[in-house]
Design brief:
- By secondary structure, the chain is an alpha+beta fold.
- It has 2 domains: 162 residues, 3-Layer(aba) Sandwich (Beta-lactamase), CATH 3.40.710; 133 residues, Probable Glutaminase Ybgj, Chain: A, domain 2, CATH 1.10.1500.10.
- Helix content is 45%, strand content 10%.
- It is built from 12 helices and 7 strands.
- Helix 2 packs antiparallel against helix 10.
- The longest helix has 16 residues.
- The structure holds glutamic acid.
- Glutamic acid binds next to loops.
Length: 305
């Protein structure tokens, strides 16, 4: 298996030259576009890795499925459904759709920024720092890694330059979609995006979703299977930004990408996959990462379709 992973990375490495690291968050522009790593954990507990799988990067949008999970754990499916939608927007992750008709909960799916900002307002906690602490704790548990923490430099960079997210949050608040102080909500959102992980951590989180909420090889349950089905379905529809349809056809598994270069992929009942390769395509997806997943999916028959 490790031989296969090495081979796939070698085949896909040239694609890193066709992409570019994200620069709209200044701190992200310091990433090395040549980094490329993969980590897989399968349902029998075996683990495989290749390349720069131990390199750290910020989770960025890959935190959105975990935010959704915690919102579900805190409120249940019905309550969450009254506050956000599940349809694909077909628009970029940070799109601002300013028609009064579109400024309703059904319009915001949790994998675009507006929906994820709303998710922060649904988490339980007396303060936004408590809400964030609970999110971080869940990530540490799912990834089985108590050392996961925030990259403070990336967090500051996001907070200082996140004008579009600020605009989105004010728009949501102006339309009555939440009541709390915008800066408190954004502090939680920016911190969530700035959590430092490696490919291994994403593979473990993916495995919890692949295993329908159970910790592999144990009876321990992180969350009900119903929530895994909810999150995986949303990932399938809109986990890869406005490239989700293409990804469904080419790879065929629920997955989430982030502008930090990470991809978490979920092969239901079979494996969790974490990839890091920060050279992105124009939609914000890791360009070599998608290539690698496509090859892996073909060779291991991972597509759920
Ligand atoms: N923190 C990033 C933002 O909100 C996350 C975007 C992403 O990874 O898609 O701009």
């Amino acid at each position: 298996m490790e031989e296969l992973l090495d081979q796939i990375l070698n085949e896909c490495r040239p694609y890193t030259k066709q992409g570019a690291v994200a620069t709209y968050i200044p701190e992200l522009s310091k990433q090395n576009p040549d980094d490329f790593g993969i980590y897989i954990i399968s349902s029998d507990g075996s683990r495989f890795s290749a390349g720069d799988h131990a390199k750290h990067f910020t989770i960025q949008s890959v935190v959105k499925p975990v935010l959704l999970l915690l919102a579900l754990m805190d409120n249940g499916v019905e309550a969450v459904r009254t506050r956000i939608g599940v349809e694909a927007t077909g628009k970029p992750f940070d799109a601002i759709n300013v028609s009064d008709k579109s400024l309703v909960p059904e319009h915001f799916n949790p994998m675009v920024n507006a929906g994820a900002i709303l998710l922060c307002t649904m988490l339980k906690g007396d303060s936004y720092s408590e809400r964030f602490a609970r999110l971080l704790e869940l990530i540490r548990r799912l990834a089985d890694n108590p050392e996961i923490d925030v990259d403070e430099a990336v967090f500051r960079s996001e907070r200082e330059t996140g004008f579009k997210n600020r605009a989105l949050a004010y728009l949501l608040k102006a339309h009555g979609l939440f009541k709390d102080a915008v800066e408190d909500v954004l502090e939680c959102y920016f911190r969530a995006c700035s959590i430092r992980v490696c490919s291994r951590d994403l593979a473990y989180i993916g495995m919890a979703l692949a295993n329908h909420g159970r910790k592999f090889k144990t009876e321990e349950r992180f969350f009900p299977a119903e929530y895994a089905r909810f999150v995986n379905a949303v990932l399938m529809i809109c986990g890869m930004y406005d490239g989700s349809g293409e990804f469904a056809v080419r790879v065929g598994v629920p997955a989430k990408s982030g502008v930090g270069g990470g991809i978490m992929a979920v092969a239901p009942t079979r494996m969790g996959i974490g990839i890091y390769s920060p050279a992105l395509d124009e939609k914000g997806n890791s360009i070599a990462g998608i290539q690698a997943l496509e090859r892996l999916s073909r060779r291991m028959y991972l597509s759920i379709f």
